[in-house]
Write a structure and sequence with these properties.
The protein is an all-alpha fold. It is built from 6 helices and 3 strands; from the N terminus they run βββαααααα. Strands 2-1-3 form a 3-stranded antiparallel beta sheet, with no helix packed on it.
């Protein structure tokens, strides 16, 4: 289709003058009719992406706060810090922390005999270590019995797997208690661990 370059009037092919304005034709060919219309590209708004990222961050923060709150309630136990000298606390924090790393509990027991603060945490660390060893033995025995009794059928094997998972969750409890003890020692606190803190082995 041909058009007048000045007024845009449609003209027939081969016409040299515009029938509307009379000027010599400078013909423009309308190619838009023969070209496919570009398809719109859908893009996610930047603000929408940022909003989703912020919501994810807020959810993660809320989960962390909830976990921190639960741990704080779990650590809401008797605080005996006032019974210890500040100098003793500052000088023996490392020994107190080591008390919650399994067999390393024997380091403060043997190397910090004169420190009441270190021995307070060593007592809790020793009880925790003994409980962990005892549970490991019990877990081995229970797992062996379950394997011997439930190995024959697939349905029974699923029960065994479930029982094994439940037994393994107890190790998570030991880990949480150790973390609480480490945090208390690091902060110079002499707080009883939940459940086991009231028992005394070392004096």
């Amino acid at each position: 289709m041909a058009f007048c370059g000045k007024c845009g009037q449609k003209v027939e092919e081969g016409v040299k003058f515009c029938p509307a304005c009379g000027i010599p034709l400078q013909v423009n060919t309308d190619q838009s009719a023969y070209e496919p219309s570009p398809q719109p590209v859908t893009q996610r708004p930047v603000q929408s992406v940022q909003t989703e990222e912020q919501e994810t961050l807020d959810q993660a923060t809320a989960a962390a706060d909830a976990l921190g709150s639960k741990l704080g309630k779990l650590n809401n136990t008797t605080d005996n810090t006032a019974e210890f000298e500040k100098k003793d606390i500052e000088e023996n924090k490392v020994m107190a922390i080591l008390a919650y790393f399994g067999i390393l509990v024997f380091i403060p027991i043997l190397a910090a005999k004169e420190s009441k603060f270190a021995r307070y945490h060593a007592n809790q660390g020793l009880i925790l270590f003994m409980a962990l060893v005892g549970w490991s033995i019990a877990d081995y025995i229970l797992t062996s019995l379950l394997r011997a009794l439930l190995w024959r059928g697939m349905g029974l094997w699923e029960i065994y797997s479930l029982c094994g998972t439940i037994l393994n969750l107890v190790y998570f409890v030991f880990t949480i208690l150790a973390i609480i003890g480490i945090v208390n020692a690091l902060n110079g606190k002499a707080k009883e661990l939940p459940v086991i803190g009231k028992y005394k082995i070392l004096k």
